[in-house]
Design brief:
The structure is a homodimer. Helix content of chain A is about 55%, strand content about 10%. The first copy, chain A, has twelve helices and six strands. The radius of gyration of chain A is 22 Å and the shape is elongated. The C terminus of chain A is likely disordered. The structure holds a DNA duplex.
Chain lengths: ~250, ~250
Amino acid sequence: MKILVVEDDQFHASFLQGVIAEALPEVTETLHVQDGLQGEAAARAGRFEAVVMDLQMARRNGIEAARTIWHERPRTRILFWSNYSDEAYLRGVADIVPAHSAYGYVLKTASRERLKLVLRAVLLEGQVMMDREIQRLRRRNASPRHSLSQSEYAVLLDLALGLQDRLIAERQGLSLRTVQNRLLTLYDKLGVNGEEQALPGLNKRVRALSRAISTRTLNLEMLETAQHDLECWLAARPADEKAPPTQRGDGAL
Amino acid sequence: MKILVVEDDQFHASFLQGVIAEALPEVTETLHVQDGLQGEAAARAGRFEAVVMDLQMARRNGIEAARTIWHERPRTRILFWSNYSDEAYLRGVADIVPAHSAYGYVLKTASRERLKLVLRAVLLEGQVMMDREIQRLRRRNASPRHSLSQSEYAVLLDLALGLQDRLIAERQGLSLRTVQNRLLTLYDKLGVNGEEQALPGLNKRVRALSRAISTRTLNLEMLETAQHDLECWLAARPADEKAPPTQRGDGAL
DNA sequence: ACAAATGCTGCGGGTTCCCGCAATTTCGAC
DNA sequence: GTCGAAATTGCGGGAACCCGCAGCATTTGT
């Protein structure tokens, strides 16, 4: 059995390799790379079927790397091993995991014993397993009180990038008013309206982004991914939509 | 010589203790605690004069802990040891370091040899020392093209918290128009105006926050600290400023 | 000492945002 | 097939925001 470790912190990596050697004696070869890009290349070249992946890495983060790996070989078993239990990461992982794939999510604060257990369960036996903390967060989000639907989350991303209503509407294929309704429910679910009545001087738009970040609904990685997506979308968008009132340049003057 | 280590990642902490034992044989006692609160208490009780401090920790971050430590014993020598070179951290550290205090800033990616060197220089000889990368960032910010002045940064924090112009003005003791001027220069320095002319559909206010975060001018820790400061300021603010147009309740109607 | 530069402020207008009201559509349930 | 809840859209108004213009105050350079 071959295993690929994608982790940019050398201390964590060496600790992890020790635990792997201890928990999975059937491993014959482990390769350690430092970031997502190298991880993609290594997975492609080495045909690994078991991967341990950090999420926050320099050149390409773990979610994007996992997406391309799963895109090429959907049966790869991936264990995400991260410092943080941000909702943004959970959502990112949930968005890309293929049906029937084995994966897991463990926090770096987990005990050595727990890590060994999860390593065997996910990488060897192909189960789906999550840290206790992760499960708890996931259940909390299942209640529709505070959880964001897929489309609400998309609007939140656009808001976070600084698009104004009209552009969000165009990008999501909705009417202006609907976007504003979505924003209303966002303000509600993020708790902006609750604060507003205690302190009536808030800019709800900014406050929503601020709260999304401090509650870890959004994080830096997801923001950068969204920014990249936006640039792709802009490049693909026909140019004539940019300026409906074509003012000058056609012939005269 | 006694030394205090404040670090919540156990792997990093044990690595650090190894390096300390190697680099500073004159150390007679090292105490390791897991977060800022414990760090403050330990520094108070143990009268340490040398501290190695992580920045990103669970209960209280390194900057706040360092502030109270320095407030109680300004001659304490503190070496900050962090994963990130965010401008927000640099600014936070620069804001609290007392005059004539010895301190340093090293990245966790620094080599073992470099860490040993800085440990001796700062904690033993009382010099001021920074990582190469940190120096570079600091020089870049010295050029007034992109760097934010103290007051501009304060306005950026208020903006990031979601205050609207009027409240920012009140909080900073400025007129409304001046706040808006500050915002203009902020938009400029954060590059919002540059993007605006390429893509004319941006909400500058949100975009400014978005860029401040993705360029690491702001980060989650500083946002939370600012939020806390805001709540303190709100509590201290006289209540009658909240509603200038007193509409009802005074006798007749 | 004078001029230039920089920072702070008020005014006014054009735009965007927030959101209540109401009409219409969609969708699941019975 | 019908009913009711939820989602989607249009309209309109008041508030907040962006920003050019112009008048003072302070600071700086010569």
